[in-house]
Amino acid sequence: MPPRDELLLILDLSPSLLRAGVGVHDLIRGPLVEMPTRLARRPTSVHPFKLTDYLVGRTLTDAEAAGEELEIVHPMVVGKSGMEVTDWVGMEALFRFTIHTALLLPRPPLAHPVCLSLPPHLSPILVDQFHALLFEKLLVPQLLVASRPFFAAAGSGVTAGVVLDIGYRGEGSEVSVVVENQVVEEATTRVRGIDEGVCDDWLAWVLWKEDAGLRSKLTAAGAVEGVGETMREIVRSLKVGDHIGFESSLLNLKDSKAGGVLTTDENGEFDVAQALVEGKVDKIVSGKGGKGGESEQEEGDFVTVPNPLDPNGDGLKVGPSRHRYLEPLFMPQILEDLGRGEEAELLGLKSAYEWKEKEWNGIQEYVGLVVGQVEDAEVRRTVWENVVIVSSGKIAGIKALGPALIPLLSPFVIDPESGSETQPRAIRHAKVPDYFSEFKHKGGEWGCYLGGCILAKILISDLQSKLFMSKAEYTAKGPATYRLLDPIQS
User: Fold this and answer.
1) Is-cis flag, bond preceding 109, omega within 30?
2) Which DSSP string do the residues of 27-66 spell out, in sequence order?
């Protein structure tokens, strides 16, 4: 008998955040829990550590508010080869707190089939260990495991496309290709130096340096000490309030070589056929890596955000410089400024960026490189038609990101030496469909979770699909059995 949809447990895991929810209904809801993966232990804890040694969620918040001395634990870290788990007991504590305390589900054994979304390109051994954790410790009855690009494509309603997954602070980003609902392992790359954290730091530096009104108000309030965190809190408020667009004097989409000839609408779509008909191919192709001209900021473009130093007082006005937030994604070389100067030192950025490994290629160049690794021209054309953007943080929720990225991809899409048969009709930012009402404004953040809901409902409910593993199969055949089920999980 297939499990009821209301019992399905969806887990979307990234190195910094765990999103979770239970029940897939006719009207799919967003995650019920968004839990940071950050844990802590008290100094009195001794190795080997027990589940009760870990502080999670509200207990961690209360301990920090009380000024307790704590050892912060990150059970997952991003190493040179991708995500690594450094503390499996801490990982179990995180899952148990999320499932039993936050979601109020009964203690093991669980009666809830689980769909687990993991970062892409993990080692088979690591995926085996996640199976062991959920089957042996939490005693789940069925388990479907696949990677975030697989679920991101499903959440956007496409079966083929290129998926850009922008990580949170220190996580880097991943570019993957999905073809016929399968992640193509040969066409992928990991970008270590570009993520949401560098964009946060960049805008904090830009606002402090360029927004004189904001700087003077914070200085008058005595915010010089700890100003770096204050500025990052302002940046967070701008993201939450949806106050960030894209405008850059360094890379202007209206005036630059790459952008001046493009047909781009508010949804982020580039019409390749129109560019070919109008004879603009040479101009577009010559725009690979080109920088734009000057742009003028609109006068009076100010928004008000809460003052971190006085939440109940008057807010702070932030000017049009906030629209430079996305610049490091496309021109990471500008981050060199964060490693020098008085402003960088005052904001606490100099030590972090002074020795930071330099990244010279923008995210658009990595996307072009990855799609170029798809050998079949017809498949490559299909992939180019959909660009899916997700993130573990909030950056993918910025509405200007898709329309800013799509025109910058145009030089990599058009091959003037090939026939029109290999060119996509158009490339578009493939977003979550509007009929998922709860996801309409959070599709970039919740896209993987939505894909998990959709595919869990389809795959786990179909007992003949064999795209998931049962507890009985795990006990009889071991964790590696999942790799024999279907290519999507290999």
Assistant:
1) yes
2) SPPPPSEEEE--EEE-TT--SSP-GGGEE-THHHHHHHHT
DSSP class of 279:
T
d(CA 363, CA 302): 29
**CA distances for 186 relative to 153, 179, 267, angstroms:** 17, 12, 30
Kindly report the number of other CB atoms within 10 A of residue 178's CB atom: 27
Report pTM: 0.88
Query: Position 200: which residue type?
Result: D
The torsion angles phi and psi of 428, rounded to 5 degrees, stand at -140, 155
Q: What is the pLDDT of residues 353-385, one digit of tens each?
A: 877 777 789 999 999 999 999 999 999 999 999
Q: Residue 49, class by beta-carbon neighbours within 10 Å (0-12 exposed, 13-18 middle, 19+ buried)? A: middle
Q: Name which of 172, 116, 113 is nearest 148 in CA terms.
A: 116
Copy the structure tokens of residue 424: 């996509």
CA distance 366 to 359: 11
Write out pLDDT tens, residues 234-276. Answer: 999 999 999 999 988 887 665 433 333 233 345 556 555 555 4
Apex CA 473: angle with CA 472 and CA 476, to 5°?
A: 85
| Both structure tokens of 183 | 């992640």
